[in-house]
Amino acid sequence: MTSSDSLARRPGEPALTELGLGAPAADPADTSTYAFPDGGTWRTEVPSVEGPEALSVVLKESSRLDVPIHRISQGSGIWMLSDAEITEMVEGCAERSVELCLFTGPRGSWDTGASTRTDSGGAGLRARGHDALAGCVEDALRASELGVKCLLVADEGVLWTLHRLRTRGVLPADTTFKVSALIGPVNPASFAVHEGLGADSINIPSDLTLAHFTEIRRVSGAPMDLYIEAPDDLGGYVRMYEAAELIRRGAPIYLKFGLSRAPGIYPYGAHLRDVALDTARERVRRGRLALDLLARHGAGTNMSPLGSRLPGPLRRFTSE
Question: Could you count the other beta carbons within 10 Å of the beta carbon of residue 294?
Answer without folding.
Answer: 20
